[in-house]
Amino acid sequence: MESIKCLIIGGGPAGYTAAIYASRAGLNPVLYEGMEPGGQLTTTTIVENFPGFPEGVDANQLMSDMRAQAARFGADIRRGVITSVDFSNRPFRMTVDGETAIEAQAVIIATGASAKYLGLPSERKFRGMGVSACATCDGFFYRKKDVAVVGGGDTACEEATYLANICNKVYMIVRRDVFRASQAMRDRVMNTPNIEVLWNCQTQEVLGDDSGVTGVRLERKDGKVFDIKVDGFFLAIGHHPNSDVFKEYIDTDENGYIITDGKSTRTNVEGVFSAGDVQDPSFRQAITAAASGCKAALEVEKFLMSN
């Protein structure tokens, strides 16, 4: 069985940053990228808000550069998914792709969180061409344009009010006749003049052409079908943290996000740390994920030095 000093699970901003710092610290990290190398950021196009890129940066290029930087410092980056774990004793034991057994003295979980989508073929077709799950990431591209936000909870209301400051008009597509959001967020939406709430509506299809999204086909509860013209279609129906494989040993909150110790990246299992969106239900930004990856690597270094 292969024995690893520092294992990093996940290949997004948190994982790659952890690999950069762990490599420079001489920890010889091994990183398994999982099913989505580069993480959720690779589902968008240009990143406008990552520091150091005044003209923006292609999301896939940013992730590729982070990966290359980690590899340059000696990180062993591998394709593969961790399919089972045993965190009952150190060294910790894991299985890769249901076949290969490995063990590690310390583990950083950076598996991210996946945005929930409606599951429409047209939604997949236009992903990155007008369909987005992050208004903060992509809203700037729809400046002075019309967009739609799907959802009725706090996140949807936050996304809609954020977009209302940038866009000409924001449609909120709400499945029920009431919001699930808090009263404060409901009031904010209803007091924003360029937000129009479409109650009792479900999305039938995202409309578009070779240039991207051009509209949305909706169906009301009474059966009426109608189209609205928009350039952007934002999903705000939640995220699913990719933590299921760890839940036997690692504490999570009611939504599955890994619980870490205050400002630390420590989990309830000594020697297991967590970084990025899998433990962050609030911010979900590349820069905050990268920062927590840095913290996790520094904490692993201190842990291994004292154990």
Secondary structure elements and pairings:
Layout: E1 2-9, H1 13-24, E2 30-32, E3 46-47, E4 57-58, H2 59-72, E5 76-78, E6 82-86, E7 92-96, E8 100-109, E9 113-115, H3 121-125, E10 131-132, H4 135-138, E11 146-150, H5 154-164, E12 169-173, H6 183-190, E13 195-198, E14 201-209, E15 212-220, E16 225-229, E17 232-235, E18 239-241, E19 272-274, H7 286-305
Parallel strand pairs: 1-2, 1-8, 2-5, 8-19, 10-17, 11-12, 11-17, 12-13
Antiparallel strand pairs: 3-4, 6-7, 7-8, 9-18, 14-15, 15-16
Helix pairs in contact: 1-2, 1-7, 5-6
Descriptive overview:
This protein is of the alpha/beta class and 307 residues long. The chain folds into two domains: 2-114 and 239-305, FAD/NAD(P)-binding domain (3-Layer(bba) Sandwich), CATH 3.50.50; 117-235, FAD/NAD(P)-binding domain (3-Layer(bba) Sandwich). It has seven helices and 19 strands. Helix 1 (13-24) packs parallel to helix 2 and helix 1 packs parallel to helix 7 (286-305). The longest helix has 20 residues, at 286-305. 42% of the residues are buried. The model has no long low-confidence stretch (mean pLDDT 94).
